[in-house]
Amino acid sequence: MVNAPTRGRRPTAAPATAGEIFALIRQGGVATRTEIGRATGLSRTAVAARVDRLLAEGLVSEVQGGAVTGGRPAARLAFHAAGGAVLAASVGVSRTSLAVCDLAGTVLAQDSLRIRTRSGPEPVMTAVAERLEGLLGEAGVAPAAVRGVGLSIPGAVDSVAGCSIGVPVLPGWAEVKLPPLLARHFPVPVRVDNDVNVMAIAEQHAHPGIDDLLVLKVSTGIGAAVVSGGALQRGAHGSAGEIGHTQVADGPGRPCHCGNLDCLEILASGAALIRDLTARGRSVDTVSAVVDLVRAGDAEAVTLVREAGRRIGEVLAGAVNLLNPSVITVGGDLVGAYEPLVAGIRESVFKRAVATGTQSLRVEPGALVGRSGVTGCAILVLDQVLSPGSVDEILALTDLRRARV
């Protein structure tokens, strides 16, 4: 049973730390020193000391508010999104999206790199770091203002160790710890997760009130992420959502790089469409080129994309029956061919899934198409570096440095 707070005071015995006060301000729960005192039970002097440290660190700003009855205007406190920055890198098999974001996750500068992951983790991370350094300059952000880096990679990830568990699309990446490779350039916390998981984090923020969400990424490969009961589900070993390696019925017996036959990814991904269109005489070598053909009205490209959507929908139908999501969002590079792709997905899902699972189901493009990867990476690391414990650690380090001067 949760104890109800008494007269606005904190139910715990321990005094509120500066980090806990920052969390209240960031969440919009308090806006003045008086409100902080009521919410925490701290004395005016204790509140002032903690707030002053947050102001000095640049995490909080203060402006004069409206007048209060019988006294001077109350100074109002607000989360200072410009008090630092985080870096975001969403690594794909052939294209990597990069961004510099403020402390609210707003993109200040962004770019993409055409670099293949088969080059290996060290060359890719070096290229990522060098371009992020350039983006900092373009955004007018000093390197010293960087507070963290959020990184995503394809496939299953050990988010604690910060490495790929070992997936076929990332040869040579298995168990290579990625945070140290970026920490050489940016000595700040680095968080690593699966590429579709970070998309789901971003989409969850963009869909307030939606607790059951299935996020689909169709790009060079195919992956999914699951938000159930309001929480991102990573699974026992970080491989939740690996629908790309679900075997499809009635396939042609095509071998997949994972070792199985007729996996969804080998039949319906962007890479599969490039292969099939090239075999039909089309000059395409990227998913973007496939999208261009569809937008130009190429009948064969439209037909192949719709068939890919049908195959994806066959697998998603089982996920709908199992998870009963409210919304399926579709993202990734192939979303540019949205109409035939999603027409095929809907056709199979609504045909094969149970009626109670589809009666109010929405299938729609992601709310942050083109930005969900970097936005999710930013949120991923912000949730760590702006947590109460991390803020208290930052302030303790600042105090230590000052004491040494």
Automatic annotation (TrEMBL):
Segments forming domain HTH marR-type: 22-61
Gene3D superfamilies reported in the protein's UniProt record: 3.30.420.40, Winged helix-like DNA-binding domain superfamily/Winged helix DNA-binding domain
InterPro entries attached to this UniProt entry: ATPase_NBD, HTH_MarR-typ, ROK, ROK_cs, Tscrpt_reg_HTH_AsnC-type_CS, WH-like_DNA-bd_sf, WH_DNA-bd_sf
SUPFAM superfamilies referenced in this protein's UniProt entry, alphabetically: Actin-like ATPase domain (SSF53067), Winged helix' DNA-binding domain (SSF46785)
Highest taxon listed in the record's lineage: Bacteria
Pfam short name (any one): MarR_2
PANTHER family found in the cross-reference section: GLUCOKINASE, ROK (REPRESSOR, ORF, KINASE) FAMILY
Family: Belongs to the ROK (NagC/XylR) family.
Protein name: ROK family transcriptional regulator
Organism whose genome encodes this protein: Pseudonocardia xishanensis
